[in-house]
Amino acid sequence: MYRLYRKLFVFMGWFGVVMLMGCVFSAQVRAQQTSAPAVEWIQDSALTRLVNVYRQYHFYANRFHKGYRVQVISTDDRDRANQVRALLLQRFPQYRAYLQYHAPYFRVRVGDFLNQEDAIPLRDSLREIFPSGVFIVPDVIDAEAILPSSR
User: Fold this and answer.
1) Cα(105)–Cα(80) distance, rounded to whole angstroms?
2) Which of 25-29, 77-81, 109-113, 132-136 bottoms out in mean pLDDT, i.e. has the lowest?
């Protein structure tokens, strides 16, 4: 049964690509007298639904991606790491805080970012609280934390 669903989604994905390439979009340019010409996109609603199903399938199929987080502390004291994580959750509720164990150290990391430039403002604000040891590090991030939920 799983194979049937998988083949169906793959077929729908290729069908969507073919539909996009098959001149479904048409652009009409209307010249206005006082301003630059405007472009109006006309798109079939069935194609919109198909593309949304395709995106939703691939989003959940590839939930975890390579990205970046801000590492605040790396310590062998578990209680200290939990205290720092609690403090981060309290002061920065818009970001997720993660406690990871890589023997023999506990690491507290914050945020889910696709590129380093997005993590720089958080790193700078965390350096005001923790003056040493705040770095942007590569990690596997949860894409669900970045993208708005489409459920």
Assistant:
1) 11
2) 25-29
Tokens representing residue 127 in the block: 């350096």
Q: Residue 86 contacts by C-beta under 8 Å, 6 or more apart in sequence?
A: none
Helix (H) or strand (E) holding 20: helix 2-21
Length of the chain as a residue count:
151
pTM across the whole model: 0.59
Query: What distance, in Å, lies between the first and last C-alpha atoms of the chain?
Result: 24
Tokens 């010249």 map to which residue? 31
DSSP per position, 37-90: PEEEEE--HHHHHHHHHHHHHHHHHT-EEEEEEEEEEEES-HHHHHHHHHHHHH
Distance between CA atoms of 138 and 7, rounded to whole angstroms? 34
Q: Cα separation of 143 and 126, whole Å? A: 22
